[in-house]
Design goal:
Length: 172
């Protein structure tokens, strides 16, 4: 019984030390997750099916809740688009945490769809969405690598430069 208790205690301490890895990484990156905004229509922010979390599309928001606006190839540079995609990643992490409670439950970022509001001749959508993808790898390491599509669209809600949705596998 003494052996079992010691093993239980060691396992518990191991879980505590490993249990805050993502939160610690966010602190190191100086990222504070914002409050999750409510859906703007008749849908949910996240839908769980088994161990998969399907997150609705999010866009980059300012601290006041307004959306960053811009069109790639017209009034926004690739670097500005990457920054908007990174901010969108932070918004999605906040939504994910709101849904699962602890980001250390993430097993992998499975699939990402990145939509870029751009002119018809703009061809660097993947470079823009790299702002999001790079963040996922910074935060989750190898678990952050994902399958991805990056497409150009004529317009996005509220004039946003990017909208991103993702599928995440979590621990049961």
């Amino acid at each position: 019984m003494k052996y079992f208790f010691s093993l239980f205690l060691v396992f518990g301490l191991l879980q505590i030390s490993l249990g805050q890895q993502v939160e610690q990484k966010l602190k190191e990156l100086k990222i504070e997750l914002p409050t999750v905004s409510k859906p703007i229509a008749n849908y949910v922010t996240a839908n769980r099916v088994g161990n998969l979390i399907y997150l609705s599309g999010k866009g980059p928001q300012n601290a006041d809740g307004s959306y960053i606006k811009g069109k790639l190839g017209k009034d926004m540079s690739i670097e500005e688009g990457q920054k908007a995609a990174r901010i969108t990643g932070i918004m999605l992490l906040a939504a994910l945490k709101s849904e699962i409670g602890d980001l250390d439950k993430v097993k992998s970022i499975v699939k990402v769809l990145g939509m870029v509001n751009c002119t018809p001749d703009f061809e660097s959508q993947p470079m823009v969405i790299n702002g999001f993808s790079n963040l996922m790898v910074e935060v989750f390491g190898e678990k952050g690598k994902h399958a991805r599509s990056a497409v150009g669209v004529a317009a996005l809600p509220f004039g946003m430069p990017v909208e991103i949705e993702m599928i995440v596998e979590v621990m049961p």
